[in-house]
Design goal:
about 45% strand; Cupin domain-containing protein; Jelly Rolls; RmlC-like_jellyroll; about 130 residues; about 5% helix; single chain
């Protein structure tokens, strides 16, 4: 993943993005579709057409994602940064959260082709899984 910060601080966030961030502090839907859930894992799919985005969500569980397709994305992070990244097909990243740690962000496809990820969350992490609106 090749990523760079394109803006620091909240000043670059449109009002509608700030309002959505405030409204989704506890959104545990980390993908566009929940593919599978067992007592141990949740498997998510994220599929975004060019210009589409998945809104703000909170990561509290250990997880990994794999980029199924190459692409480019923009993300607003809870610390105010706006980050743009390029992904390669097959690229995988792992994340671990200690008790009470988390990450809140969104993801927008800024490329010219569909962007597709698979994300796997581990339900036996240090933090309790967030409830999902079904």
């Amino acid at each position: 993943m090749n990523a760079s910060v394109v803006e620091k601080g909240w000043a670059g966030w449109p009002d509608v993005i700030r309002e959505e961030f405030d409204a989704n502090q506890s959104n545990g839907r980390v993908g566009t579709r929940l593919l599978s859930e067992t007592e141990r894992v949740r498997v998510w799919e994220i599929r975004l057409a060019p210009g589409e985005r998945i809104g703000f969500h909170r990561h509290v569980l250990d997880y990994f994602w794999t980029a199924v397709t190459p692409g480019r994305a923009r993300s607003h992070a809870e610390d105010g940064r706006i980050i743009e990244a390029a992904y390669s097909a097959g690229e995988t990243r792992h994340f671990v959260y200690a008790k009470d740690e988390y990450k809140i962000h969104d993801l927008e496809n800024v490329g010219d082709a569909d962007l597709w990820f698979t994300t796997v969350e581990f339900l036996d992490s240090a933090n309790k899984p967030l409830e999902l609106d079904r």
